[in-house]
Automatic annotation (TrEMBL):
Residues 1-21 are annotated as: Disordered. Antitoxin component of a type II toxin-antitoxin (TA) system. Belongs to the phD/YefM antitoxin family. It comes from Thauera terpenica 58Eu. This is Antitoxin.
């Protein structure tokens, strides 16, 4: 794992470089010489927070319209009640 440190100015001028560096490890972004933000890959973030993807998160993803999702309809029929 590689740790990269960038100033806010370097980050603003080279965001794509920062994203590539984040694939190798965390990128610390400084503001006036002090660490202010951390950029990391989404996989690292999920691993760090131990988040599990739920159906609501999956359905909110960009590009969801490209995924076929046609669940079968469920029919719930009433059952007779025995009051004896």
């Amino acid at each position: 794992m590689t740790i990269t440190t960038l100033t806010s100015r370097e980050f603003n001028q080279g965001a794509s470089e920062a994203k590539r560096a984040a694939n190798k490890g965390p990128v610390f972004i400084t503001d006036r010489g002090r660490p202010a933000h951390v950029l990391m890959s989404f996989e690292d973030y999920q691993r760090l927070t131990k988040q599990r993807r739920n159906i609501a998160d999956a359905l909110a993803m960009p590009g969801i319209a490209d995924i076929e999702f046609d669940p079968p309809r469920v029919t719930i029929k009433p059952r007779p009640v025995d009051f004896s």
